[in-house]
Amino acid sequence: MTDHSQEKQSVTLPVSGALPITSSVQNALDIVKRGAEELLVESELTQKLLRSEKNGKPLRIKLGLDPTAPDLHLGHTVVLNKMRQLQDLGHTVIFLIGDFTSMIGDPSGRNVTRPPLTREQIEENAKTYFAQASMVLDAAKTEIRYNSEWCDQLGARGMIQLSSRYTVARILEREDFTKRFKDGTPISVHELLYPLMQGYDSVALQSDLELGGTDQKFNLLVGRELQKDYGQEPQCVLTMPLLEGLDGVEKMSKSKGNYIAITEPPNTMFAKLMSISDPMMWRYLELLSFRPLAEIAQFRAAVEQGRNPRDIKVLLAQEIVERFHSREAAEGALADFDNRARGGIPDDIAEVEVAGAPLGIGQLLKQAGLCPSTSEALRMVEQGGVRIDGAVVSDKALKVEAGSFVLQVGKRKFARVSLA
């Protein structure tokens, strides 16, 4: 299998005519590389930045997202934060909505064919995408594009001509394709087109730098190759780590339920951030916090000397809540979290009406929306995680009489129930 890391030697810009590095470009490189997984190729990006500084022409920075779901979570903001930093350095950031490629379906990291979305699903999801991304990016300085602009125009003839520029052998070098091919798992022909279409986006936009998660590395490198084939200077590639979710194991994903949406209420966002493990806290600080690395290093040293890591986690949670809401919301979320930790009942809990008294505790918890099933509800009772008006429920056979009361599951789930 080809080692694309060798591109660091094979496609660097010529040494002749190379500009001497300046302090401002070195600072820009430090910002670009913070928290990044890999930069291909650093010497090329250095020269691009130096040329930009000399001629006053900003670099074109591309990020493509397929609107496969309508909501963005903190995992998405790892790369969006980097885009904002590049934007603040004065470069042009292009927020590319993959409305065309979504109909193919990116197979990255998958061992089965991913069902393509319909045009209706894509349009519905795309409605909220940029509005949410603008919570991180400067919307007024962001170029919004849809890849259907140029992909639709290709037509059958253009698609065949594009396909002729890349070999099946090179496409099958992609790790997930290789594994599926060896395992005899079906690979549809349309999936092989996805890396080509994403690469062609870079040609159409004349991208200087493309960002993506580590799972996108192959696709981003295809963009480099196609640009060279079309006579363009190849883009550089910056891959960002995939942020683990609240479980600390799987990458953050709405489908896995381990996510923190950037539109979540302040109290929920704060509580979820406080639930991450102490070791994972450092990962979140590195990838999500805007604090200087030196300050984070001081936090580490303080914890090693005995400071409670909870103090640092509170600072992280307040920073994130303030970013997506406000300082007042962050302070209120901390007060709410502390109140719950002391066993207090929050003010803003849902009010639920349930019928069927007397009702078994399992059914009551399910109908109140606090547990997904009666079996899960009864398991929570066994673990001592269910309270009615602050009193622990220990009897799984409990029949609850009509009345109004506060029902609690765990530390964060509450409902003010009226049972008739």
UniProtKB/TrEMBL annotation:
ATP binds at K254. It comes from the Bacteria. A motif ('KMSKS' region) lies at residues 251-255. It is an enzyme of class 6 (ligase). It is found in: Cytoplasm. Its EC number is 6.1.1.1. SUPFAM superfamilies: Alpha-L RNA-binding motif, Nucleotidylyl transferase. Keywords: Aminoacyl-tRNA synthetase, ATP-binding, Cytoplasm, Ligase, Nucleotide-binding, Protein biosynthesis, RNA-binding. The keyword Protein transport does not apply. Its main location: cytoplasm. It holds the Pfam family S4. HAMAP family: Tyr_tRNA_synth_type2. Catalyzes the attachment of tyrosine to tRNA(Tyr) in a two-step reaction: tyrosine is first activated by ATP to form Tyr-AMP and then transferred to the acceptor end of tRNA(Tyr). Belongs to the class-I aminoacyl-tRNA synthetase family. TyrS type 2 subfamily. PANTHER family: TYROSINE--TRNA LIGASE (PTHR11766:SF1), TYROSYL-TRNA SYNTHETASE (PTHR11766). This is Tyrosine--tRNA ligase. The lineage of its organism: Bacteria, Pseudomonadati, Pseudomonadota, Betaproteobacteria, Burkholderiales. The gene is tyrS.
